[in-house]
Design brief:
This protein is mainly beta. It has one domain. Helices cover 11% and strands 41% of the residues. The protein contains 2 helices and 8 strands. An 8-stranded antiparallel beta barrel has the order 1-2-3-4-5-6-7-8. A hairpin with a 2-residue loop joins β4 and β5. The longest helix is centred in the C-terminal third of the chain and has 10 residues. The radius of gyration is 14 Å and the shape is globular. The model has no long low-confidence stretch (mean pLDDT 85).
Length: 122
């Protein structure tokens, strides 16, 4: 996988409390990532994550809360309709499929911009 492959907006499963809950993960080309825990209703804002990401290898992605920090590793694996992100144990898997613009909730663009504005740039 390449940065270009994962850059974009994704529906991500497996992050919510309910089995059918789907979140949104935005990966920007500058290494910023915003994760909203719910895409079907207004997100739980106290759980929105503003992250930095970088590639460790073709199959490892590192996330951190602050630019340049060590953070944590996620394994990435391509699938026919997206990719799967797994924790280091491989037990927790988070399937990601591309989120078409017309399928995103109406609150998404505004909240994405607000969260990106709150991040300190390197």
């Amino acid at each position: 996988m390449t940065t270009h492959t994962l850059t974009g907006t994704w529906f991500i499963s497996g992050i919510g409390e309910a089995e059918n809950e789907v979140g949104i993960l935005a990966l920007l080309t500058d290494g910023r990532a915003i994760q909203f825990p719910s895409s079907t209703a207004k997100p739980r804002l106290n759980q929105t994550m503003r992250l930095w990401y970088r590639y460790e290898s073709a199959t490892l992605l590192r996330f951190s809360l602050k630019y340049g920090e060590e953070g944590w590793i996620r394994t990435i694996e391509e699938t026919h309709d997206g990719w799967i992100m797994s924790d280091e144990s491989g037990i927790h898997k988070f399937p990601c499929i591309i989120a078409p613009e017309d399928a995103l909730p109406e609150w998404y663009p505004e909240l994405l911009e607000k969260n990106l504005d709150r991040m300190n740039k390197p």
